[in-house]
Design goal:
Elements (H helix, E strand, L loop, with lengths): L6 E4 L8 E4 L11 E2 L12 H4 L15 E2 L2 E2 L2 H19 L4 E5 L5 H15 L4 E3 L6 H11 L8 H6 L2 E5 L3 H4 L1 H11 L6 E5 L12 E3 L6 H14 L5 H7 E2 L1 H11 L3 H8 L3 H13 L3 E5 L1 H4 L4 H14 L9 E4 L6 H7 L5 E3 L2 E2 L5 H9 L12 H10 L4 E5 L3 H4 L3 H10 L2 E6 L12 E4 L8 E4 L4 E5 L12 H11 L11 H15 L16 H5 L4 E2 L26 E2 L38 E7 L15 H4 L7 E3 L1 H7 L6 E6 L2 E9 L7 E5 L32 E7 L1
Parallel strand pairs: 6-7, 6-16, 8-9, 8-12, 9-10, 11-22, 12-13, 16-17, 17-18, 23-27, 24-26
Antiparallel strand pairs: 1-2, 2-3, 4-5, 4-18, 14-15, 19-20, 20-21, 23-28, 24-27, 25-26, 25-28
Helix pairs in contact: 2-20, 3-15, 3-20, 3-21, 4-14, 8-10, 8-11, 8-12, 8-14, 11-12, 17-19
Bound molecules: iron/sulfur cluster.
């Protein structure tokens, strides 16, 4: 028998976006996959999650047919029910009573149709996504500085850099193939330096020349201090700044006010002054410097300011969009970037425009020929679920995500959904904590079954390709959304024969919005034939008629997407740290955990900062990686990592259960002594939930404190009390 040819597709796990070669083996499985040697993200490499993909598939535990109110039905009945119930909510309560909560796991085509249906045809602005939890602070700081949400650099820069500063990023576990590339690029280059800035000593520190194990949430002080130092030591690229940027004097003044010298920075960040100086000297002296940052920066009450403080230092030295020199935010999810491209965040409209972009509403409405379009931004994730709880939102459609586990104050999210009159959930598995609360369940196609595109952290569009037949009656998400659009009476607007047609429309819209100042442009792909879409090879946007092969870097010429073409420094003003506790400490559910006094072993012996994150071999809430026995071998149960000195002080032994009590609830975890933890700080992985262990969710204890600019919740430094069970 002739073997089917291996197809090039894209790993669905992290934002690295590795190319995978995969081949069907029968009708319900694929052969073990290999890395695609021609894909520019990974050149054949894969991490264990990627190489285990074949083990996570199959038709077990799949949602096989639509269900309405607990009864299995056909698609027509389910789609009619959705259309009728959404129309009723809209008629009785207005369009703003409807919300969509999307996911960085969706393909760009799914995201595009969801955004169009919600904003253009149902008229609700309330479209947000689990990417709000991932990188929305980075988006806000890019827009502040560059006038657009654009990552200036590319993965090659991580190899070209002579100094790589990894901030709040356990790259070795969370972006493993990039870590492999970074490590390999250092071989034989003794002068190349790597600095890791992280409150935990993680696996990434193995390649660090210097680890700055700072106090959580103090990164902006460290980078404000760097800006002060650059200005004070004459290390600013004066000519570049004068010609290409605005606002440096004010930013330097703000930096000096909060972080005037390495000594003060060392004190606030709880670092050795000599280490702070060593970092500053290396940064000042190394032209080819990349600062790579992720959730440790973004998931903070001051995530946007932390991003701005980093970007300010790159602007001051003219290191933006040059080979081996850029500030580089790396996304967690495989298609967080694609969601940004279509406008899938509540503050966006479409195709990288937002409600403040002059002319954007008229442009998008005319392009979609839609009956209406909201006039102002919608609610971001935390506000959205608050509105579900209050009854302001009466209907929510959740796609490819599990907010009952992943949101902060997760018990409240669960209660809100349990009381919501209409919860629609599209997913490919038959059971998640969120799916269990749905009135209408829609079976979605999963990885290896569906066709579409994703965009990785370096702006590279890649195809995910269908290899296997659909399981049961599952269908692509874009199709289900378009069917509802048609049933609402908008036959032409949602008449898509295939995902290629959706993609062409998305590309054509970018050709319109880029004229208004949007950063996203794939206009050269608007005329792709179905065959060319099937054959599409990885490309970095912008992809224009002038640059049909894509664009590796942006802004290297010093022209930005601001009205005057100049980059903008942002003055990062910071409060005096470690002041007394706020008067209402512990009472306000949105309170800034950094505004309270630091945990103190004598006065508050059980009080800790609570940090959360991913493990190497699991993904999100384990609905897919949990199916692979190989991926359980790394870590088989959840835990709470604590510094040995703290464990001794509290009298708890390795393996003993402890109760973790936060502002939003409690969780019981097994204690793990970990010398990589700072004293006064503990860490737990995010993945476990009731589906897998019944052991509770970390989101259930975390207060929903958010960054005021981005709305991103602070998962990295909430406050908890710990006691032995
Ligand atoms: Fe998949 Fe990320 Fe691993 Fe690449 S690094 S194989 S994208 S999980």
């Amino acid at each position: 028998m002739v073997q089917p040819k291996a197809q090039a597709t894209t790993c669905p796990y992290c934002g690295v976006g590795c190319g995978v070669l995969a081949r069907a083996s029968g009708s319900a499985s694929i052969e073990p996959v290999s890395g695609d040697p021609d894909h520019p993200a990974n050149f054949g490499r894969l991490c264990i999650k990627g190489s285990s993909l074949a083990e996570t598939l199959g038709d077990q535990n799949r949602l096989r047919a639509p269900e309405v109110d607990g009864k299995r039905v056909g698609w027509d009945e389910a789609l009619d029910a959705i259309t009728r119930r959404l129309a009723t909510v809209r008629a009785q309560h207005g369009p703003e009573a409807i919300a969509f909560y999307l996911s960085g796991q969706l393909l760009t085509e799914d995201y595009y149709v969801a955004n169009k249906l919600a904003k253009g045809f149902l008229g609700t602005p309330h479209v947000d996504t689990n990417s709000r939890l991932c990188m929305s602070s980075a988006v806000a700081s890019y827009k502040r500085a560059f006038g657009a949400d654009v990552v200036p650099g590319c993965y090659e820069d991580l190899e070209l850099a002579d100094l790589l500063v990894l901030v709040g990023s356990n790259t070795a576990w969370n972006h493993p193939v990039l870590y492999q590339r970074i490590k390999a690029a250092g071989e034989g280059r003794p002068n190349r330096k790597i600095i890791v800035i992280d409150p935990r000593r993680t696996a990434t520190c193995e390649i660090a020349d210097l680890h700055l194990q700072l106090h959580p949430g103090t990164d902006a002080y460290l980078f404000n201090g760097l800006l002060s130092w650059l200005a004070a030591t004459g290390a600013v690229a004066e000519d570049w700044v004068q010609e290409r940027a605005s606002g440096m004097d004010a930013a330097v003044a703000a930096a000096k006010a909060s972080a005037p010298s390495p000594r003060e920075v060392a004190e606030v960040c709880d670092l050795a002054e000599a280490d702070v100086e060593a970092f500053y000297r290396l940064f000042a002296d190394t032209q080819r410097t990349v600062t790579l940052y992720s959730q440790g920066i973004n998931q903070s009450v001051r995530g946007t300011d932390q991003g701005s403080a980093i970007i300010n230092c790159h602007l001051a030295t003219g290191r933006v969009g040059l080979p081996g020199a850029s500030p580089f935010s790396i996304t967690g999810q495989p298609n967080a970037m694609g969601g940004r491209e279509v406008g899938g965040l509540a503050n966006q409209l479409a195709a990288h425009t937002d409600y403040e972009t002059p002319g954007a509403r008229d442009c998008v409405q005319a392009f979609w020929n839609s009956p209406e379009l909201p006039e102002a931004a919608g609610m971001k994730a935390v506000e959205m679920f608050d509105a579900v709880a209050s009854g302001a939102i009466q209907a929510i459609w959740i796609m490819a995500t599990n907010p009952v586990v992943s949101m902060p104050d997760a018990e409240r999210v669960k209660a809100a959904l349990a009381n919501c009159p209409l919860v629609i959930v599209s997913d490919c598995v038959d059971h998640t904590d969120t799916l269990d609360l749905a009135h209408i369940k829609l079976p979605a196609q999963g990885w290896s079954e569906k066709d579409g595109t994703v965009t990785n952290s370096e702006r590279r569009l890649s195809r995910q390709r269908g290899l296997l037949p659909a399981v049961g009656e599952s269908r692509p998400d874009w199709w289900a959304l378009a069917q509802v659009g048609q049933r609402l009476g908008f036959k032409t607007a949602f008449d898509y024969p295939n995902p290629a047609a959706v993609f062409r429309e998305h590309a054509a819209l970018s050709a319109q919005t880029v004229k208004l100042g949007g950063g996203f442009d794939i206009s050269a792909l608007a005329e792709l034939s179905d065959q060319a879409y099937r054959d599409l090879t990885p490309l970095q946007w912008p992809v224009t008629h002038a640059r049909p092969l894509g664009t590796a870097r942006q802004f290297g010429q010093g022209r930005f997407r601001t009205p005057d073409g100049r980059a903008r420094f942002h003055s990062v003003a910071l409060p005096v740290h470690a002041g007394g506790p706020a008067a209402d400490a512990g009472k306000n559910r949105h309170e800034d955990p950094l505004s309270q006094s630091r945990p103190n072993a004598e006065s508050t012996p059980g009080s800790f900062y609570f940090n959360t994150g991913r493990l190497r071999d699991q993904w999100h809430t384990m609905s897919r990686t949990g199916r692979s026995p190989r991926l359980w071998q790394h870590t088989s149960e959840s835990f709470l990592a604590m510094a040995p000195a703290d464990a001794d002080r509290m009298g708890v032994a390795d393996g003993q259960f402890v109760r973790v009590s936060g502002a939003a609830g409690q969780l019981v975890l097994r204690l793990r002594r970990d010398s990589g933890q700072r004293q006064g700080e503990v860490f737990a992985p995010i993945h476990w939930n009731e589906q897998w262990t019944g052991a509770g969710r970390v989101g259930g204890v975390i207060r929903p404190s958010c960054d005021p600019a981005s709305g991103q919740p602070a998962f990295k430094h909430s406050r908890v009390d710990i006691e032995p069970v």
